[in-house]
Amino acid sequence: MVAHALPVSLSGYARAAADRLDVEALAYFDGGAGDEISRAANGRAWQVPTLVPRILRRLADGSTRCPLLGRTLAHPILLAPVAYQRLAHPDGELAAACAASAQGAGLVLSTQASVPLEAVSAAIADDPDRGPLWFQLYLQHDERFNRALVRRVEAAGYEAIVVTVDAPCSGVRDRERAAGFELPHGVSAVNLADLPPRRAAPPGLCNGLVQNAPTWEDIARLVRATRLPLLLKGVLHPDDARQAHAIGVAGIIVSNHGGRVLDTAIPTAHALPAVADAVGGKMAVLVDGGIRRGTDIVKALALGADAVLIGRPLVHGLAVAGAHGVAHVIRLLRDELEIAMALCGCATIADIDASLLGPAQPSHSQPP
Amino acid sequence: MVAHALPVSLSGYARAAADRLDVEALAYFDGGAGDEISRAANGRAWQVPTLVPRILRRLADGSTRCPLLGRTLAHPILLAPVAYQRLAHPDGELAAACAASAQGAGLVLSTQASVPLEAVSAAIADDPDRGPLWFQLYLQHDERFNRALVRRVEAAGYEAIVVTVDAPCSGVRDRERAAGFELPHGVSAVNLADLPPRRAAPPGLCNGLVQNAPTWEDIARLVRATRLPLLLKGVLHPDDARQAHAIGVAGIIVSNHGGRVLDTAIPTAHALPAVADAVGGKMAVLVDGGIRRGTDIVKALALGADAVLIGRPLVHGLAVAGAHGVAHVIRLLRDELEIAMALCGCATIADIDASLLGPAQPSHSQPP
Amino acid sequence: MVAHALPVSLSGYARAAADRLDVEALAYFDGGAGDEISRAANGRAWQVPTLVPRILRRLADGSTRCPLLGRTLAHPILLAPVAYQRLAHPDGELAAACAASAQGAGLVLSTQASVPLEAVSAAIADDPDRGPLWFQLYLQHDERFNRALVRRVEAAGYEAIVVTVDAPCSGVRDRERAAGFELPHGVSAVNLADLPPRRAAPPGLCNGLVQNAPTWEDIARLVRATRLPLLLKGVLHPDDARQAHAIGVAGIIVSNHGGRVLDTAIPTAHALPAVADAVGGKMAVLVDGGIRRGTDIVKALALGADAVLIGRPLVHGLAVAGAHGVAHVIRLLRDELEIAMALCGCATIADIDASLLGPAQPSHSQPP
Amino acid sequence: MVAHALPVSLSGYARAAADRLDVEALAYFDGGAGDEISRAANGRAWQVPTLVPRILRRLADGSTRCPLLGRTLAHPILLAPVAYQRLAHPDGELAAACAASAQGAGLVLSTQASVPLEAVSAAIADDPDRGPLWFQLYLQHDERFNRALVRRVEAAGYEAIVVTVDAPCSGVRDRERAAGFELPHGVSAVNLADLPPRRAAPPGLCNGLVQNAPTWEDIARLVRATRLPLLLKGVLHPDDARQAHAIGVAGIIVSNHGGRVLDTAIPTAHALPAVADAVGGKMAVLVDGGIRRGTDIVKALALGADAVLIGRPLVHGLAVAGAHGVAHVIRLLRDELEIAMALCGCATIADIDASLLGPAQPSHSQPP
After folding, report:
1. D198 in a structural domain
2. Which of B247, C276, D88, D313 is positioned for an S-S bond with D319, CB 3.0–4.6 A?
3. Distance of alpha carbon C346 from alpha carbon C348, whole angstroms
4. Strand-pair category, C106-109 with C77-79
């Protein structure tokens, strides 16, 4: 496949990937929870706010550079943690990591990665221009295992740990179940291979599966147990963000898990402003969910985010053209961000603020 | 049919039932009044509000147990009164009752049931884990008949009487009329078999058919005439709820009759908050109309309901797999409720409140 | 055609008429101005407000009787003035008049009727139960002709004159022009047969065609020139309603001409409240535009109207079954009104008020 | 093609042009940026506000005459600058100029015109009834070239210079790229033929392409460098309009470039009121984007515009019937404007104001 035949937008990648992924993998990656209302609302919530661009400002010497957790990034785009990427391409997470590295994007590796976490970090360790490398952690039911996993993550050179907190149990994944999705032979959560089996479930909600769901105490203990900065992924309420800050968490990711867990959860674009008001400036605030355009990123930053993550587009890039596809997806988004900044009159990331967002619809308007 | 081939959601059941019910029965059960605006709006009104889940709360030892009219229920789901269930399956109301009993759900038997009310109560009388068993009453034009029916209901072990008050006459059922629906031979309102014929209609609205429609005086008399607690079904205005409380009614069901009577009646999700503000805590407040997901139940409880009822999904379960289908429908909804609670950070029903509901759309938003 | 094969709703009549009318007549009758935004918005604006019905009120001895301009009507439904009804059925306006008379509905005959105005009044003069008979007047460019026409109208027994004031020129009727609509041989505005030709158009807007458009002075002169009460049809602004009252006009019809003149004109349901607030009680206030259900009439009366008119449904009835079809259309709407009143807890027209209308959507709601 | 076979509305022209333009040209002319949200929202934003027409006002001796930059125009319609019009018709900009002249419409020639600017002005110089002739300027990277171009524009008799300021770089034109659009042999920006090549791009946003994007200083310099009045096209923020006025700019065009540059930019109908409030009356305020109906023009003027421009409809007219098509497009719009004015009760342009616009939707309304 030659470069000019690749899709020209992230939605083009989504369509192309739908033709290449088998139906079970597509249901797994693209599906959401329940009626997929949050999944669809996430994207629309970035499209709906309007931009009021400014004109004739000096654009010379601009750039997308931005600070995040003590580093300066080339641009504010990270790859979100996505499980089992070898379902999308044989190279899986290794391809994604190389693509991220080549494009200066951050990478958050999933606990449920289908390649060893050490292999991923080794693949890009030597790239001086790579973005941040983080590890996403699902706290497991075995405390000893959790501690050992954190030690491996630290030893492998990951720079931060992202604890996902919005999924004490799985969501209601109708599309997956209708498609009969099961992990194929040869794809598994290799980093959890040593996890001891769960003991018989006690009574309680969800057949006892949430009996050991992580609590604030578990997070506080983890903060003390690792030298790495900790982020929480899946924060939607400002009081939870405040609580995270109070116990020493370094950053939060405003996320509803791509609409894959609790359907009708608030779109992240609507949750972001209150969360950023509560803790912005005091801790890193990232956001994901439906980011597909450079203008979406401008709006996310205008509403208080420091950076954004993309999940499904990474899978689409993998499915269409492996590492090359992922790199192209990041490149497209980064180019669109630069264009959107220039067209809004913003030479730098710091120039982006809420004054770019349009007012509410005038009161004389009325649906026909 | 093996269990794993059953639908995985209530909307899946609705689609499967549409393939199995004959066109007249489908028009009768699934149709609504007029342009079916309220019928559609009911469901959408639960989907539209957003949830702002809370994280990292203790979920251990949670449950869906909840109080209702002096009992503790296993969960807050009841089967709504639906007429002529033998149209959907030969076992009709008996199947629904067994399914409800097996799943700990409450059951409200319709006056227009197609099996004797005594047979229904006898079928589940010995199950210690069954939910509440109530009887829905349409007051008839013959006072002596009404009194005798109430005596039968009391004698058969029903625990409460639900008087439907939103249908002094039938609604404008276009879909039914277009399909030419008539009750087939062998299906009838057997519990009304002894009802004397109506005398010639006097003049007045609706060809005099509403001349003897029940009034507040009739309800007050009924409260005094039975030892059972009385509920009113079809209350949408808070002043009517207050009036019901004042005359000794024990509970109300916020309902627009599934959109089957007055089209463009307010969706029950929109009527519920004012009603619950008026009488919540002083009397039982239930709600029905378009509840199809566990998240819908969370929202109903957050808006002030003590429990919810499902109507059409019961019919869909019956049509797809008889008692087994109804039980599965209840089980799906109950499982979804537990998952939604866990994902919202609520270990118990008492943890659910309005703080879970998202704020109005921010003022910078604007439809594209 | 047997009665039970007729459509069961006004929208059913619309569909059936679309199959029977030739494409030019359909474009003429059903089409609107421009992009037909107002035409569609009219109907939706009645569907959108919700009703909050009241329960257990006494319904005995209720009726739809209501006062209008000194008479008591059997119900508040009138047939709107529609031109060239012989395009829809050979009996044209005579059929409509007989149907209205049989159903106790009012009739407003169009200046552009395709039968003589004297023939229409003669056809129903002897029916003691007929509704009001009014004449719709387009003031013509010739003052002598206007005076003679008013004399004919008075002599023929019409009880009021309705001057249409929202059409100083024709609207932009794209559908009509695309269909190449022209009046067929044998159908014409017979009551204008003696109208002298217009003199050469002077310069000005619309090629001078609006040079002699009626003004407030013309209306004031007409009030003085006839003994009949005068109504203005096409009033949307409360100040215009006040002005009409000030010069002795007896009533107004809130109308945007069925969306046939100025596209994107405010839906009549949205214009009605302010107009009724301004002049309701002091003069008759009627409304038309998109009324298709009994619930629409309840809302119109709740928002301040004294009566309603239907236009296109009359044509659909004519096209489907002549006088019988029109009578059935009126009967359906009247039956639906009675049902809606009973279901709202209103025994009489006077019981209908704005307290039946639901509150605005709660602030926690948000489009998905 | 005979006149009566031409489309009867601008949307009809759009459909007819889509059948005649080749797919690449269609993508170029009709496409927008990104997901084309702004492109679609522009048009809808004019349709959504309602009009509350006034009745019985004197319409005699009315007209569409209006003042603009010291001239009196026959009507407030101008042709927007559109590049490469010879893609749509061999006569290109010459045909458009002749049509504008014949209809008394203004013309704004694009810097990227496909015919020499002197040829265009020469073609219509002798028409005493022609509308204003303006030149749209993209400031180029070579200052000497810019100065020479302005001298040519002045010498050729153009009356004003319109500097486009909303496109420091190209937008994300997915449709164009998907169609593989390239300028065909024989169509080029002939007026830029002498432009020296750009030097190697320095680092910065957009590969350095915006390094020399025009700034307020460049505009201030241009104001001093030409005797012609200067307008800025692409102003959406009131503060930018104020700044333009402060440095001597004579007028602004509220525009988002037809949704071709920054997707999700605020619709021009929503941006216009604040801009007009800021500078209306002190400088000329024009608007473009989605104007397709006479009622759209009435609303634009009611919201504070002095005149409007149409872009794509000009191309559609060209594609369908060359100069004749463009003239017909203007004529249709002008006729619709006159009709809309008459129907609103406005005899003159000065009678149009915000009191014609309807109130916000009443609070009892609620989407079904």
Report:
1. no
2. D88
3. 6
4. parallel
Yes or no, beta carbons of C270 and D50 under 8 Å apart:
yes
DSSP-assigned beta bridge partners for residue A348: A63
- Count of C-beta atoms within a 10 Å radius of residue C189: 16
Element (H, E) at B233: strand B230-235
Inspect the interface and report whether the beta carbons of D55 and C264 lie closer than 8 Å: no
Query: For residue A345, what is the domain's CATH number?
Result: 3.20.20.70
Residue of B164, B210, B249, B257 best to disrupt the C interface, most CBs of C under 10 A: B210
| Cβ–Cβ gap C362/B273 under 8 Å | yes
Is residue D326 a part of any domain in this protein?
A: yes
Task: Give CA torsion, residues D251, D256, D257, D261, to 10 deg.
Answer: 140
Rounded Cα distance between A71 and C296, Å, is 63
Alpha carbon distance B78, B104 (integer Å):
9
Tens-level pLDDT at each residue, chain B (368 residues): 344 589 999 999 999 999 999 999 999 999 999 999 999 999 999 999 999 999 999 999 999 999 999 999 999 999 999 999 999 999 999 999 999 999 999 999 999 999 999 999 999 989 999 999 999 999 999 999 999 999 999 999 999 999 999 999 999 999 999 999 999 999 999 999 999 998 877 788 998 889 889 999 999 999 999 999 999 999 999 999 999 999 999 999 999 999 999 999 999 999 999 999 999 999 999 999 999 999 999 999 999 999 999 999 999 999 999 999 999 999 999 999 999 999 999 999 999 999 999 965 433 333 33
Helix (H) / strand (E) element for A38: namely helix A37-47
Q: DSSP assignment, residue B154?
A: H
Maximum Cα–Cα distance across chain C: 67
Chain D residues with CB under 8 Å of A57 CB are 215-216
- Number of separate domains in chain B: 1
The answer as to whether A362 is a domain residue is no
Looking at residue A233, the DSSP 8-state letter turns out to be E
Nearest CA among D147, D146, D159 for reference residue D120: D159
Name chain D contacts of B41, Cβ cutoff 8 Å. Answer: 368
Q: Is C356:B237 a contact under the CB 8 Å cutoff?
A: no
Q: Is B96:B67 a contact under the CB 8 Å cutoff?
A: no
10 Å CB burial of residue A179 (0-12, 13-18, 19+) is: middle
- For the packed helices A294-302 and A312-344, what is the interaxial angle rounded to 10 degrees? 70
Q: What pTM was estimated for this model as a whole?
A: 0.96
Q: Which domain holds residue A287?
A: 10-193+208-352
